[in-house]
Amino acid sequence: MSRNHPLLELRTYIGECLYLLYCIYFKPYTLENWLRDIHPDLKPTSSLWKMKDEFRTNPRLRRYAGQSRWLIAITPLLVVIIIAPVYTLFTQESFEWLGVGSFLLGWWIGLILELVLAHWLKAEYLRFVLMILILALGVALGVAFGVAFGVAFGVA
Question: d(Cα 8, Cα 13) in Å, to the nearest integer?
Fold first, then answer.
């Protein structure tokens, strides 16, 4: 594959997101040093959107902001998908998929509204984000109903 191949770029981007998530939870000092290298005033608690005027001149800051946004959107869904089966297995109780799904839907709607209201993004980008959210919601609901019906039929 060539250096600019889309799949290679996507794999690199996802790897960077996973490394960022790892640093957030397990290597906070490494994260602080890395953020200082991106921008001298950047800290883990900094508001990236106050620095958005510098995105044009600092591509690493812009990339970090995008990765942070994806982690904010996707991590709760991944945690639920991992924790729900473990919870059900150990407590022998059904997981509240509807409540969690409603929370995640509200979470994503809030993220979309923040994007649209704060940045007035182009319609193509908004359609892309909506498509990703609908896909994520479909996966979450599919898993929820699959588990619920599987447990119901298994018990019956």
Answer: 9
Inter-CA distances, 107 with 38, 51, 82, 89, 130, Å: 28, 23, 18, 27, 13
pTM for this structure?
Answer: 0.66
Three-class SS state of 75: helix
Q: What pLDDT digit, counting tens, does each position of 38-62 carry?
A: 999 999 888 887 888 888 899 999 9
Chain-centre distance of CA 125, in angstroms? 16
Nearest to 84, CA basis, from 97, 71, 75: 97
**pLDDT tens digits, one per residue of 68-95:** 988 988 998 888 888 888 888 889 888 8
117, two tokens: 């209201």
Size of the chain in residues: 156
Nearest by Cα to 39 from 14, 58, 13, 66: 58
Q: Are 80 and 100 in contact (CB under 8 A)?
A: yes
Is residue 65 within 8 A of residue 119, CB to CB? The reply is no
CA 22 vs CA 27, 78, 103: distances in Å: 7, 14, 24
